[in-house]
Protein: DUF4328 domain-containing protein
Organism: Streptomyces fuscichromogenes
Amino acid sequence: MPDRVPGGTVLICARCHHFAAAPGTTLCHRCLGGSTEPVPPFGSTPGQWLRSPVGLGWATVVLLGVVVAADLFSVWADLLQYDAAGALADGETGAAAFRRADRADRMLGVAGGAQAGSLLACGIVYLSWFQRVRANAQVFDPLGQSKSPGWAIGGWFVPVVNLWYPRRITLDVWDASSPWGTTRSHTLVNAWWTLWLAALFADPLATSGDDAEGAAQVRDGALRLVLSDTLDIAAAVLAILVVVRLTRMQHEKATAGAAPTGF
C-alpha cells in the first residue's frame, strides 16, 4: 500500500516514493512508463507536492548576511565601549573621555536595535524556509522523518527540546535530501549547531553585566559582548552554508526525477 502524504489524499508512488501516483494506480506516470515527463515536482497544493525551496533559500541567505553585518557593527561598538571604559578605568578624566563613553553607549544602543531587527526578520524567513524543506523531505522519504511536521516550527520555541530538536529535524531533512543511494556527511550541520548553542549560552553571560557599576566592570562586559557577537557571526556564516547546501540538494534531487530502479 503506498504512503499517504499527511493531511492529504494524494498517494505517493509505491515504487519510487518520490512523485504522486497517477489516478487509479499505485505508481507515478514515470514508473508506469506512460510518459517521459514526471509529475511536476513543484505543484500547487501545499503539503502534497514538492515545492521549490530556492526562493526562500536565497532570501534566508540574504537576511543571514544582514545578521552578520549587524553583528560586525556590534563588535565595532563593543570595542568602542572597551576603549572608552578602559580609559576611564585607567584614570583618564576630562570632557573628551566622557564624550567617548557617551558615543560608545549610543553606538551600543544602535547596534542592539540593528541586531534585534535583523534577527527577527531573518527568523521569520528562515522558519518559512525550514518548514518548506521539511515538507519536501516528507515527500522524498516519509519514513525517515523522526519528528512530526509541527516540530519544524515548534521545536525552536519549546524550552529544553529546542536544544536538540531542530538539529535532529535538520539531519533527517539532510538525509532525505541527499542523492538517491548516498548519505552526505553531517559535519557541517553538527558544526553549525555547536556554534549556535555556544552563541545561545554566551548571550546571557555577555549581557549579565549591563548594570555593572564602575569603568572596569563595563570594560570586562564589553569583552564578553565581543565574544558573544563573534560566536553569533560564526554561527550565522555556517547557517548560510547549511541553507545553501540543503537548498541545492533538494533542488537537484527534485529535478533529477524518480529514484533508480530498486529504491
Notes: The chain has seven helices and no strands. Residues 1-10, 35-47 have pLDDT under 50 and may be disordered. The CA atoms of residues 144 and 172 lie 6 Å apart.
